[in-house]
Structure formats: C-alpha cells, structure tokens
Amino acid sequence: MPGLLAIGAITSIGLGAILVFAVDWQWDSADRPLVGLIMMAVGMLALLVATRMSDHDSRAGKMP
What we know:
It is rod-shaped, with a radius of gyration of 15 Å. Helices cover 77% and strands 0% of the residues. The chain has helices at residues 2-22, 32-59. It is an all-alpha fold.
C-alpha cells in the first residue's frame, strides 16, 4: 500500500508543478497556480505518509 501511495504522491507533485510553472493558460473559475501549489502540498504530505508507513512496516518485520 505505501508503494501505491508514493506513486500517487509523486504524480500529484509532478502535475502540480506543471500547473504552476509550465502552463500559461488561465481558467475562468479557478486560480491555476494556486491549484498547482495545493496539489504539490498534498503530494508532499502523501509522500511523507507513505514514507512513514514504509518505515513502520520495516521496523515491525513485515515485508511489503
């Protein structure tokens, strides 16, 4: 499970960075850079959780 969460987190960080830095079009209903920053923040939080889950599993002697 931590592996799948980490993949989703990295994807969220990447898509958020694309929205912030690489796209120049605007939405009428949302602030594109803000959406990208929120996606990157959520991705970083998910990556931290995945790392903690993986670390906890390895300490308990479980193999993923």
